[in-house]
TrEMBL record:
The keyword Transit peptide does not apply. Pfam families: Galactosyl_T. One of its GO terms (molecular function) is hexosyltransferase activity. This is Hexosyltransferase. Its main location: Golgi. It is a single-pass type II membrane protein. Its EC number is 2.4.1.-. The lineage of its organism: Eukaryota, Viridiplantae, Streptophyta, Embryophyta, Tracheophyta. Its cofactor is Mn(2+). Pathway: Protein modification; protein glycosylation. It comes from Oryza punctata. PANTHER family: BETA-1,3-N-ACETYLGLUCOSAMINYLTRANSFERASE, HEXOSYLTRANSFERASE. It is found in: Golgi apparatus membrane.
Length: 317
C-alpha cells in the first residue's frame, strides 16, 4: 500500500495505567462486543494478568458455548477499537455510556472493543474510584503522556499510543469518540466492512473553505491503523505544536498536510447532532451526538427501542 508507516516508533509518550497499578503498561480489557457474547451469554470470562502488557490476555468462552457453536462463530472481517474520551469525574455519564454499548446488538463478523480513555488521573479520590471501575469493568485505558484535557493533546496522545499499546493484536481501525455520542456499533461496522483497510478517515465530514471534508467532526471519527501508526511517528505534528487547538480540526490538519487519510468517507446524515427538540433521530443512525444530559440519553434509548418490552414493576400498588 502507498501508506506504509515506519515500523518502529520513537514516540515520546509513555503509556501506563493508573499510578496505583504500578510499573508495567496495563490495559484493562473487556471481551469484544462480537458474536453472541454480549447478550445472553454475558461478558465471558476475563483472564488478565495485572502485571502483563496489553498483549497478554485471553477471553475465555462462556462455559455454555459448545465446540460446535464456536466452530460456527464466524471469523471477524474487521476489527475496530473504539476509544471514548472521557474525564474521571464523569462517573454517572460513563455508567450510562457503558450500558449503552453493552446492551447493543452485536456487530456481525466484527471484533469491536470499547475503551474509556483518560489522561493521567491526578486527583487521589478519582484515582481510587477509576481504579475500581477498571477492576470491575476492564475497559479503562489511562494515557500517561497527557494531562486531562480536550484540546491540548489528548487526541494526539490517544491516537499515537494505541499502535504501541495494541501492537501485538492490532485493529484494522481506531475510533475516537466522546461520552455524549451514542454510537451504534453494528451500523458503523457495516459501513466499514466494504471500505479499504488503509489510509481511511471516516466520520461526519465538516465542510470548510470549499472542501467537502477537510476534517471529521469530533463526535466520532475513524482512522485506519496505518494512519494511527503514522500519527505516532510524525514528529512534524509536535514540531508545529499542532496538538494544541480544537482536536477534530487539528487531526484533519495533520492528515491534510501529510497527504494521509485519503480514503475519506462522510457519514452525514447518518451521523448528526441531536436537535434541541430531540426530534431528528433517524432509524439508520450511525452516531447521534449532543447527548449532554440524562433526558437526552433516555430519549435515545426510547427511540432505538433499547428498553422496549422491559416493564418496571412497583413493589406495592
Ligand atoms: C511551540 O510551543 C512552545 C511552548 O509554548 C514554544 O516555545 C514554541 O516556540 C512553539 N513552536 C512553534 C513552532 O510554534
Ligand atoms: C422501534 O419499535 C417500533 C415498534 O416495533 C418500530 O416501529 C420502530 O421502527 C422501532 N424503531 C427503531 C429505531 O428500530
Amino acid at each position: 500500500m502507498a501508506m506504509k508507516a515506519p515500523a518502529s516508533s520513537n514516540s515520546y509518550l509513555l503509556l501506563a495505567p493508573l499510578a496505583l497499578l504500578l510499573l508495567a503498561a496495563v490495559v484493562f480489557l473487556l471481551p469484544s462486543l462480537n458474536g453472541a457474547r454480549v447478550g445472553s451469554d454475558g461478558l465471558g470470562v476475563l483472564c488478565a494478568r495485572r502485571s502483563a502488557g496489553a498483549e497478554d490476555y485471553t477471553v475465555a468462552a462462556p462455559a455454555a458455548a459448545t465446540a460446535k457453536e464456536e466452530e460456527e462463530e464466524e471469523k471477524p472481517e474487521l476489527s475496530l477499537l473504539v476509544g471514548v474520551l472521557t474525564m474521571p469525574k464523569r462517573y454517572e455519564r460513563r455508567d450510562i455510556v457503558r450500558l449503552a454499548y453493552a446492551l447493543q446488538p452485536a456487530a456481525a463478523r466484527a471484533r469491536v472493543d470499547v475503551r474509556f480513555v483518560f489522561c493521567r488521573v491526578t486527583d487521589p479520590v478519582d484515582a481510587q474510584l477509576v481504579a475500581l471501575e477498571a477492576m470491575r469493568h476492564g475497559d479503562v485505558v489511562v494515557l500517561d503522556g497527557c494531562e486531562e484535557n480536550m484540546n491540548h493533546g489528548k487526541t494526539h496522545a490517544y491516537l499515537s499510543s494505541v499502535p504501541r499499546l495494541f501492537a501485538s493484536a492490532p485493529y484494522d481501525y481506531v475510533m475516537k469518540t466522546d461520552d455524549d455520542t451514542y454510537l451504534r456499533v453494528a451500523a458503523l461496522a457495516d459501513e466499514l466492512r466494504g471500505k479499504p483497510r488503509d489510509d481511511v478517515y471516516l466520520g461526519y465530514g465538516y465542510a470548510m473553505g470549499g472542501h467537502p471534508m477537510p476534517f471529521m467532526h469530533g463526535m466520532g471519527y475513524v482512522v485506519s491503523w496505518d494512519v494511527a501508526r503514522w500519527v505516532s511517528t510524525a514528529e512534524e505534528i509536535l514540531a508545529r505544536n499542532d496538538t494544541e487547538g480544537p482536536e477534530d480540526l487539528m487531526v484533519g490538519k495533520w492528515l491534510n498536510l501529510a497527504g494521509r487519510g485519503r480514503n475519506r468517507y462522510d457519514l452525514k446524515p447518518r451521523m448528526y447532532d441531536l436537535s434541541w427538540d430531540m426530534d431528528n433521530f433517524r432509524p439508520d443512525t450511525v452516531a447521534v451526538h449532543m447527548l449532554k444530559d440524562n433526558r437526552r440519553w433516555a430519549a435515545a434509548f426510547s427511540y432505538f427501542n433499547v428498553t422496549a418490552g422491559i416493564k418496571l414493576h412497583h413493589l406495592s400498588p
